[in-house]
Amino acid sequence: MSLTQILIFAGIALIAGIIHRPRLRLYVLFTASILAVFALQPVLPIRGLDFWLPTATLALVVFSWFATAPRSARSFRQNWSVLSVLAVVILILGATRYIDLNLPLPVSRPPQMVQILIALAALALIGSLIARLPAWVNSVLMAILILFLIVLKSPVIAESASTIFRVFNQQSTELASALDIRWLGFSYVSFRIIHTIRDRQNGKLPDASLIEYVTYVVFFPALTAGPIHRIERFLEDLRNPTPLNLDGLLIAGQRFVIGLFKKFVLADCLALIALNATNALQVHQPGWMWLLLYAYAFQLLFDFSGYTDIAIGIGLLGGIRLPENFNHPYLKPNLTQFWNNWHMSLTQWFRAYFFNPLTRTLRKKGLSIPVIVLTTQVSTMLLIGFWHGVTWNYVLWGLWHGIGLFINNRWSDRTKVWMDTHITTRPQRILAQVSGIVLTFNFVALGWVFFALPDPQTSWHVFLTLFGVTLG
Amino acid sequence: MAEQSDVKPKEKINPIHVVFKALGLFIILNFLFTFLDPSSIGKLSLYNSILPGRSRLPFGENPAESYNLSLYNLNAMLASHEIAGAEKTEEEYRVVLIGDSSVWGTLLKPEETLAGQLNQMNMTCGDQRVVVYNLGYPTISLTKDLMLLDRIKAYEPDLIVWPVTLESFPWDKQLSSPLVANNRTAILELIDKYNLPLDPNDPELVTLSQFDKTIIGQRRNLADILRLQLYGFKWGATGIDQIYPESYEPAQVDFEEDITFHEYEPPTLQEKNLAFEMISAGIQAAGETPVLIINEPILISEGKNSDLRYNFFYPRWAYDQYRELMQEKSLAEGWNYIDLWNLVPAEEFTNSAIHLTPEGESLLATATGQSILERFCTP
Question: I need a labelling partner for A214 at 20 to 30 A (CA). Which of A38, A304, B351, B364 fits?
Answer without folding.
Answer: A304
